[in-house]
Amino acid sequence: MRIDSSSTAAAILPLVGGPANVTSVAHCMTRLRLGLADPSRADEAALRAVPGVLGVVVDGDSYQVVLGPGVVTRVTAEFEKLTTVDEPPSRGAEPKAARRRSDATPLKRALRRLAAVFVPLIPALIGCGILAGLGGLLLNAGWLPGLTPALAAVASAFMALIAVFVGYNTAKEFGGTPILGGAVAAIVVHPGVAKVTAFGVTLAPGQGGVLGALAAALLATCVERWCRGRVPATLDVLLTPTVTVLVAGLGTLYGLMYAAGAVSSAIGTAANWLLATTGPFAGLVLGGLFLPLVMLGLHQALIPIHTTLIEQQGHTALLPILAMAGAGQVGAAVAVYVRLRHSGLGASIRTTIRSALPAGLLGVGEPLIYGVSLPLGRPFLTACAGGAAGGAFVGFFAMLGDKVGATAIGPSGWALFPLLAGNRGLGTTAAIYAGGLLTGYAVGFAATYAFGGVRAAAATAHSS
After folding, report:
1. Which of 164, 291, 364, 366 is deepest in the core (most CB within 10 A)?
2. What is the tens place of the pLDDT at every residue in 49-87?
3. What is the average pLDDT value for the chain, to the nearest integer?
């Protein structure tokens, strides 16, 4: 079903309290993320009934409307046209918003801001990752030799300069001037750093990667904000940017790059060791715990880790394992559907599954999580069991030396196939990943069918 973006945006706006109640508008891969002055004015039940809305999630001070990939970008653009986010909130709403912000833990706030730095980069990571995979296929097959160098340049240019984008977004998110954050972060990838020695070690361009760029831009933001309060207004335009770039730049060269490089290397070494020595166990734990992490919003902490691994090794071996959680969720949803096919209590749940299952197969799991497994309770746990089994399957082959990685973050499920990379060729890599998905589907289905308590949970949900 094709969604009319303008109609969807117009339908959502009054159900979240109207323009005066909207304090911020943003989006990630699948969700329209709204800041609401008074969240109690939102009508969650009516929102869920809007055509195109796959689910609603309330996370701290963020009100999230799940729309799915592609759709969310268009709806957000239309929604922004309808709202004036700087309009003052309604009377009495400000204390409620303040209380809601105070309820958000420092960890959740930090993760949300970290995600705001990296999530906008995901479309470029996906596009460049697919082009890199296509270029690799052409190169291995010996086809179009005149085109492969051009594809390689197009695919790798973003990754070569990703530190600049990270620095720009970091400064923007943490209250600095974005271009100054980007300017300081650019030092990390500048060839001239090869002439600089810190702690007795000659630096290398790119040392520290995205973590170094993140730290550099944070330092630049701190320096800039310190200057703004002390430099006379007449000299601000000259002194503040100069001092910011100088102090943060030297701090980056003579401290942050070395430290971030050590941390980045440790992340890569730890990931490789974990999969090489404890593959099935690591896969079981990661695949089994990812759905709860998504539910709590803690999965955002993994974004810089994925990005660091892609920058270092060309792919992240963690994402295909974590993607197995979605497979377990799909298997559990199918089991719920089968269990309730002859029950009059489960008509609405079966309708939700029919509409959300295609998105689940493509790695968009929120509609099934919030529309099916979480409301039923036990199927959420059996879905996690399916994810654990699929993760253990992929981890087992990683321990044998057959690594499966993804050249970009964002997609999972079937949508991850174009982004797969490994050390045994694309055919073997795709076969292992497909085997993991099938294992997740099968175990998620079997565990839910046998132990999900579906009919009792549906009866409880129907009576409540």
Report:
1. 291
2. 888 887 788 776 678 888 877 788 889 989 998 885 444
3. 87
Structure tokens at 105: 């833990």
Does this model's pTM top 0.85? My answer is no
Q: What are phi and psi of 74, to 5 degrees?
A: -70, -40
Three-state SS across the chain?
CCCCHHHHHHHHHHHCCCHHHEEEEEECCCEEEEEECCHHHCCHHHHHCCCCCCEEEEECCEEEEECCCCHHHHHHHHHHHHCCCCCCCCCCHHHHHHHHHHHCCHHHHHHHHHHHHHHHHHHHHHHHHHHHHHHHHHHHHCCCCCCHHHHHHHHHHHHHCHHHHHHHHHHHHCCCCHHHHHHHHHHHHCHHHHHCEECCEECCCCCCHHHHHHHHHHHHHHHHHHHHCCCCHHHHHHHHHHHHHHHHHHHHHHHHHHHHHHHHHHHHHHHHHHHHHHHHHHHHHHHHHHHHHHHHCHHHHHHHHHHHHHHHHCCECHHHHHCHHHHHHHHHHHHHHHHCCCCHHHHHHHHHHHHHHHHHHCCCCHHHHHHHHHHHCHHHHHHHHHHHHHHHHHHHHHHCCCCEEECCCCCCHHHHHHHEEECCCHHHHHHHHHHHHHHHHHHHHHHHHHHCCHHHHHHHHHHC
Is residue 128 part of the annotated active site? The answer reads: no
The one catalytic residue in 28, 128, 227, 384 is 28
